[in-house]
Amino acid sequence: MNDLAPLLTPEGRALLDTVRDTAPADELAVATRLRREYPAELVSAALGQARLRQRAAVKFGAEDAGRMFFTPNGVEQSTRASVATYRAECFQALGVRSVADLCCGIGGDAIALARAGIRVLAVDRDPLTVAAARANAEALGLADLIEVREADVTDIDTSPYDAVFVDPGRRGGRGRIFDPEAYSPPLSWAVEAALKAPIGVLKIAPGIPHEAIPAEAEAEWISDSGDVKEAVLWFRPDGTPGARRSILLPSGAGIWASPDTMLPDPEVRPVGRYLYEPDGAVIRAHLVAEVAEDLGGGLIDATIAYVTADELHVTPYATAYEITDQLPFNVKKLKALLREREVGILTVKKRGSAVEPEELRRKVLPKPYGSRSATVFLTRVAGAPTMLVGAPA
Ligand SMILES: C[S@@+](CC[C@H](N)C(=O)[O-])C[C@H]1O[C@@H](n2cnc3c(N)ncnc32)[C@H](O)[C@@H]1O
Known about the structure:
Elements: H1 5-8, H2 10-19, H3 27-34, H4 40-65, H5 72-77, H6 81-93, E1 98-102, H7 108-115, E2 119-124, H8 127-139, E3 146-150, E4 163-166, E5 171-172, E6 175-176, H9 187-196, E7 199-204, E8 218-224, E9 227-235, E10 244-249, E11 253-257, E12 274-278, H10 280-284, H11 288-295, E13 298-301, E14 304-309, E15 318-328, H12 331-340, E16 343-350, H13 357-364, E17 372-381, E18 384-392
Parallel strand pairs: 1-2, 1-4, 2-3, 4-7, 8-10, 16-17
Antiparallel strand pairs: 5-6, 7-9, 8-9, 10-11, 12-14, 12-15, 13-14, 15-18, 17-18
Helix pairs in contact: 2-4, 6-7
The chain binds S-adenosylmethionine.
C-alpha cells in the first residue's frame, strides 16, 4: 500500500490497535483471522505499520512510536528523539522561534522542535513521507505548530523563518552515500541555504572528512550511549567558524575547541596501567588531544585513538580499562594467556588492526577456560601490531 489514508480512517485505526503487539512469528495467523473481517490490503498495511512502529520504538520510545506512522525509509533515516530533542534545545537557547525543516522525513526533527515550542515548516517531496509527517504531527498533538508541505526544498522561500535545518537524503539505490555532493539535495546547496538564513544547521554523515567542512561552520558530532549518530554543521552569526564539538548523550557532556584553542596531537608514550577508549564522537571531532590532556595521558601510537595513562580518572569522554598484559600480536600466546587466567568471557576490541574480532575469539577461546572476563585490544603500539589484555576499570 503506498497510501496511509486507509490506516487513518476509524476502521484503519481500530485495526492498528488490534495488531499493535503482534509478534513476527504470529503475523500469518493474525492476518488469516483478520482477513475474515477486514479487506486483505488493509490487514497487511496494518501489520506492516505495526512492524515499523516496533522498529521505531528504539528511536522514539514505545509510547510515541505506538502512535506514529512510518515508512520503511522514514524509520531508518529519522533522527532519534534523544538527538532531536538535544538539537531543539540548542535552537531554543539561541532564541529561535521558527524553523524551516527542509527534508523533514516522517518528522523526527520537526516533532522535537515543536515540542520545544518552535513553529516548524516541514518540507519533503515524497508524498507518502509527507503523509506520515502530517499524521505524526496530528497524532502527537503538534499539528498547530507543524505545517507539513509536499514540495522540493529547493523551491522553498525560507526568508520568513528564524532558522533553516536541512537533513539531506544520504541513501541511494545502492545504500549509503558518502560523497556529500551526491546527497539529496547536495551539500553545496544546503550550505548556501544555511548561509542565507539567520541560523543554518545541516545534518551530515559523521564520517565526513574534516577537509569537506566549510570554513564558516562550527561542526558537532553527537553520540548516544556510545554510538556516534550524526555530525551537524552550525552556521550562526555569533558562532566560532572552525570550532569542533562533541556531545555525548544521554548525559549531554560536551567538549569544545576553537581553531585557536585546539591542542596539537598528544605525545606517544609507552602503554601505562590504564587504557582509555575515547567516545566515537570525540574521535570523529578530532578532540582526542583534549581528552588526553584531561587524563594526563598520551597516545599508544601516533595514528591510533587510544589514550594511555598511569592513573585512573573518571571521565565521561572515554571508557577506562586496566591493562594487565601487553604482547606482540600472536594468537597462540593469547590463547595460552587466556587459559592461564581462566577466562570464559572475552571481549575483543580493535583499532588499527585488520583482524576479524569474531574469528579471533573463536580461535583463542574455543571453549571457556573458566569464569573470568577479559578484554583484548588488537591494535598497534608505536607501529607494532600488539595485543593489550585487561578489563574495564
Ligand atoms: C534523512 S531524511 C530526513 C529525516 C528527518 N530529519 C527525520 O528526522 O525524520 C531525508 C528526506 O529528504 C527528502 N528529500 C530528499 N531530497 C529532497 C528534495 N530535493 N526536496 C524535498 N525533500 C527531499 C527525502 O524524501 C527524505 O524523506
